[in-house]
Structure prediction request, 796 residues.
Amino acid sequence: MEEDKANRKIESQSYMDRLFCTTKERVSYVLYSAFGQTTLGKYDVGSELWMYEMYGVKPIAFAKAQVALGIYDIVNDPLTAGIIDNMRTRWGKFKPFQYLSLIPSIILGIYICMLPMLAQNLGLDASGRLTYYMIYAFASETIGAFFGGGGYINNVFTPNPNERTSLLVSSKFVGDLFRKLPQQIISVILDVVGNGVGYASMTKVFVVGKWVVWILSMVPTVLWYINSKERVAQSEKPPNPVKGFLSVFKNRPLLVYTLSDLIDGINIGQGGDLYYNDVLHFNTLTTIAGIPGSPISYASYGFVSKLRARLSTKTLWFCCRGSTFFREVLFLCVGLIGGKKHGLYLKKIPMMLAFMVGNCVEMCFYATNRVIGDEINYEVLDYCEWKNGYRVEATVNMMKGYFTKVKDMILKIINAWLLETWAGYQVGEGSVQTLDTKYRLFVTAFGPRLIFDALCFVPMFFYNIDASTRTRMYSDLERVRSMRANMEKAIADVDEAEETSNAE
Amino acid sequence: MADCPKCGHHLKMTDWRPKCPNCGVNMVLYDEQERMMQDADIAEVQYYHFQKKIDRLKASFAGSKLAIVRIFTSLLPIGAIFLPLIKAKVTEPFKPMDGGISILTIVDCFDKLNGDTIAGAMEIGKTPTTFLLVSAALFALSLLALVAHFLLLTLACSPKGKIRNTVLDVIILVTTIGSLIAALAMPDGGAVIGTVGIGGYLYVLLQIANVVVDLMVFKKGITIKHKQCYVGGIPIEEYFEMKEKGMTTEEIRPIQYERLHQMRVEKEERLKKEAEEAEKKKAEEATASGRR
Prediction:
């Protein structure tokens, strides 16, 4: 028992170790987490293959347009973070945003599904296509910024961190059974179309595929929006915006994790998709080479809880990132054997084998990798509430996103220059690349990022939430939340009793 | 929440603020813990029923060593269809070929479908290919039954699981052996002349093995281990007994808080003990390395 400011005894009781989600909520959450982000992978909107090969936009023009989008994004982020973190309604902090985002998201989804076909029918040139795409990009950014707060409900739909973790693991497992399927089917079809078999064009294949995945992702999202509930109450008074902003800098685990993420995300050079498509002519390399690793990835789910119990979050993070780093180093080194003219990077079999071996090692930590990022995210937000007494989900994510966005804006220009000017990449369906371009494409795709992937390990040495800190944190949070809820009731009941006695 | 939890004032959509327009109480925080406990009471009972299904699903696949073997025997026959099912000489009206025919060859034929192949297929009734067609149809059925069998393994430990699996086993046996007999009985004068290939025999053997393992699993039985579920720290069986006795939520709630508190204390003591042991071990290791 503790006392409030008026010396009234307030009870704090254990309740957070219970399960709070009904079967409907659990199923909705698992389906939403598993399928809500289903995409066509490297063939989806915004990917290099889609932008430059399928849709037909020039890299430098696109990169310049993205700068304007990036500036708009940077300007609206603090505003929207302020709106979200100050939102207090009787339905909760995030619930209203879920409903507000539904209809605009549906309209935008239909638009993007039909966009390539629309561009083809209107006979748009590269700059016209860019304009139509940027309409989508700006609209998507606006909806995401002003109504995207609904996504934060994933942090607060249950106060029990163990329930949250177990649902997260289940949803990742279910998602992994089917998540890659749309991408795999589309890559096989596009490989067939690309080799001149069949009569369908890439555009038609994309439109049909995109409709399927969009419906597949939209239905569980709507279900989740209807069934989800907020169960971690926010502080009654919203935090002072400046205090909220500064609390982020006082949050050591958050700073450390953000820095590590930022360095890891410095991916100089375009991704491997253009290399697989234009150099190896083997879009399905990662799919086929990933087959031996596939059963390992499913089996790895059986070890998540055991690893979680034995190892700290930090150690698990190192294992996950280390396995990915090993795969990347192996792939690059094998590809460079033989030099530019006779390099193994031009040959399908050695590259496939190199990917296969690295992938098998990486898959041992696959399930943990799928979960650890979200776990750290939830932990740092709970840490913020523990230290400061209030939650600032939107501000925290805005800060994380800020650095990433500035970095991405700069990288887009560098990468576009590397692709178009340095490598001499030819855009458009059916384009042919020179040997020099192919070599540079390979090197830029897999080389420079390794430096930053190695550097990203350094900040995480300073991550300070270990097992005992975590236990103490959730124990204190439970006590404080319980007291806050009971205090409100006690005050209201006492006030009512006083009013009644005064009336008498 | 359509009414204020304190005063019962009916709320409109325009009453979006957290404070009740009538009594001024913060509706989100007022009695929040009791509402959470009520949510948890419903959720934990639902979880108990759902967990039973999950326990049965887990037992179906990993409840015994034979059940694990059954996963592989259910899938192995699919591997056999990639080997030559029939070694045959194919003449008009089909595309002429001579050699092993596996599933890949059949897929290739469909891939290269054109007017001639379709016209040839329509001539089927005029040539003695009845046994071939019967064999192919029974083979396709046995494959479908195999796939259905594998998918329905998820329900193998449910109340009707045994009957369901047994029926499928019978269908698999009848269609597989029937397909083999029809293939062996193919006459010489047809458009397809040949013998059953290694893939065909292997397929039959693996299907029989699949059925035998399935029957052995049922004979030995699988023990389903149900996870102990709780409702507010009270074992679910005890909770149901309390409800049957007519105990109200208000009477059960203090017991739940007491049990939850007890569970929390035990957990903290266990973690404290583990932390002390870990520190002791570290200190011993440090001393030992210092001495070295």
User: Anything to note?
Assistant: Chain A has two domains: 23-234, 242-465. The two ends of chain A are 32 Å apart (CA to CA). Residues 1-5 of chain A have pLDDT under 50 and may be disordered.
